[in-house]
Amino acid sequence: MRVGIISQARMTSTRLPGKVLREAGGQPLLAWHVQRLRAAGAPLYLAITTNSADDVLAEFAAAHGLPCTRGDEHDVLARYQQCAAAHELDVVVRVTSDCPLIAPELIAAGIQRYLAAADDQLYLSNALERTYPRGFDFEIFSSKMLAEAAAHATRPEDREHVTPFLHQNRADNVRFSHFRRPTDASRYRLTVDTAADFELLRQLLDDYDAGHMTAEELISLLDTHPELVAINARVEQKKL
């Protein structure tokens, strides 16, 4: 089974444009994202838009030896399907580039669990029943399911957000597996969507060497530093 991690990225974020190339800890957030994902042990691919604003992301991908697929800005589902097909993937791990501290050990464990199930109608995620901080999110599903969603999903939100057709089980053939933490840490936010989010990540990367921490080490750090948690505690996640 050929498993690949596909991450989506663009420079035209509405709340914090250019966020993935902002620097913290001595390098762009996207570099931390790529570095950590490569530690998960599966090939990594970048899915970006055809907008000229994202040429800089194509240049980043080339400089980092990262295969890159370009497609429609709003039809992200098609971008994922095109990337999966181009690289002949059997299994797709979907992540997003606004998670610079994504945890490779969780993704590796998720992949192992998915493959052990040997079920191409399985959707495995740690985001539907959230027990990990936002910023560790991943979804795993077969390229067969991805192709089905790309062929049949028609709502704009389906095309933009990639997996609603799957995790809402619109084809009525999906089996679910939820990757949970024994105790709930979903109150923490380690994604970057606003200036406050970036400030927290900047401090974590600059002052605490967070880029080399595991998920549990990051959670423990937040448990013991409420002043850090307060930096972006008021940020509301955008609704689908």
From TrEMBL:
Q: Which GO terms describe its cellular component?
A: cytosol
Answer yes or no on keyword Chloroplast: no
Record keyword Transmembrane helix present: no
Superkingdom of the organism of origin: Bacteria
What are the alphabetically sorted keywords of the record? Nucleotidyltransferase, Transferase
Q: Which GO terms describe its molecular function?
A: nucleotidyltransferase activity
PANTHER family assigned to the protein according to its UniProt record, in alphabetical order: 3-DEOXY-MANNO-OCTULOSONATE CYTIDYLYLTRANSFERASE (PTHR42866), SPORE COAT POLYSACCHARIDE BIOSYNTHESIS PROTEIN SPSF (PTHR42866:SF1)
Protein name per Swiss-Prot or TrEMBL: Acylneuraminate cytidylyltransferase
User: Whose protein is this, by species?
Assistant: Hymenobacter coccineus
